[in-house]
Amino acid sequence: QVQLVESGGGLVQAGGSLRLSCAASGRTFSSYFIGWFRQTPGKEREFLGTISTGGGNTDYADSVKGRFTISRDNAKNTVYLQMNSLVPDDTGVYYCAARWYEGREYNYWGQGTQVTVSS
After folding, report:
1. Segment 52-79, tens digit of pLDDT
2. How many angstroms separate the CA atoms of 55 and 67, rounded?
3. How far is 3 from 22, CA to CA, in rounded Å?
4. DSSP conformational letter for 101
5. β-strands 92-100, 32-39: how paired?
């Protein structure tokens, strides 16, 4: 089992950058894929990207490809979401989630962190 806590959200102007962190508890953190998601009022939760257990493989949604980068430090049990060239449509609550490397679903979720991009 793993528990996740996001941090790093806040208010930023369009064109700016933020880095979110997802800190995990548990000794098996390195056995989980970690995904980042975004929730905006009135919209379905949006998948942003994921990173493999060792960090060697990443995958991104088209909406953030080239602007967002996911990385991880397994020694620190932490995954990062670097967000550049932010636009107002990036506003929302950002969540990280964990999926067991043999699993198909993200079963563990953080509480979310708010990101607001002003125009």
Report:
1. 999 999 999 999 999 999 999 999 999 9
2. 18
3. 10
4. T
5. antiparallel
